[in-house]
Design a protein that fits this description.
The chain has 227 residues and is of the alpha/beta class. The chain contains seven helices and seven strands, in the order H-H-E-E-E-H-H-E-H-E-H-E-E-H.
């Protein structure tokens, strides 16, 4: 075999491998078979719709949602219309959440204290149920062990988490009485309860709520979450 034939053979082989990989990456029913017209992947259509869904933005109305809690009860953000709402993205296996809800953690008493003041606290788990942290049993065990009282909502497909841009746990959001997002970011400046360089703890959520109650402008409406 001459050089040109060998090169052509190798090139043809690469094309064949590339075509095979491309076909493998598509759902079987989405590829053309037997000359039939290619069908649109419904999952792709769902992604397109998700891309058009409202996204959380400071100073704008918070995206509406409807989720079920760990006991199957439906909870809507609209149910809290006219009230201040705190959203906390949560994961029972996250070390930061475990520390925060521990005996000396920042969240040991805070949700109950705020609820007593008329503020709505909603915890959300945007975890795949196939994963340990997304299983209702694991979440309920954490609730029972740590004495959590706030509603724990399930977002198994992550749509609500995506709408709010929740990327860590805990990731916090505050919504005012008018339904406007006024704070997003970290719980405080103390991951694992430790402030860098031994400084004083600053509770960003508590500060935002205090300023909101006083009718003042929130000084730090956007911080970087940790977790």
């Amino acid at each position: 075999m001459n050089h040109s034939s060998l090169t052509a053979g190798r090139f043809g082989g690469l094309l064949a491998v590339g075509a095979a990989l491309a076909a493998f990456s598509l759902p079987a029913w989405a590829a053309q078979e037997g000359g039939k017209e290619k069908k649109e992947d419904p999952k792709k259509e769902e992604v397109k719709k998700d891309d058009k869904a409202p996204r959380a933005e400071l100073g704008k109305p918070a995206p509406a949602f409807e989720l079920k809690d760990v006991d199957g009860k439906t909870v809507k953000l609209a149910d809290s219309k006219g009230k201040v709402v705190v959203l906390e993205w949560f994961n029972p296996g996250c070390p930061f959440c475990i520390q925060a809800y521990g005996e000396k953690g920042a969240l040991k008493k805070l949700p109950e204290e705020l609820t007593a003041k008329g503020i709505v606290w909603l915890s959300i788990v945007s975890e795949n149920p196939a994963n340990k942290a997304g299983k209702v049993e694991a979440i309920k065990k954490f609730i029972e062990t740590n004495g959590l009282k706030a509603p724990m909502l399930l977002d198994p497909d992550g749509k609500v988490g995506k709408a709010y841009g929740a990327k860590s746990t805990p990731h916090m959001f505050v919504i005012d009485e008018k339904g406007v997002l006024v704070y997003q970011g970290a719980l405080d400046n103390a991951p694992f309860g430790q402030v860098e360089n031994g400084g004083e703890r600053v509770g960003y959520v508590e500060a935002a709520l205090a300023e909101l109650a006083a009718g003042k402008k929130i000084q730090k409406p956007d911080t970087k979450s940790y977790g």
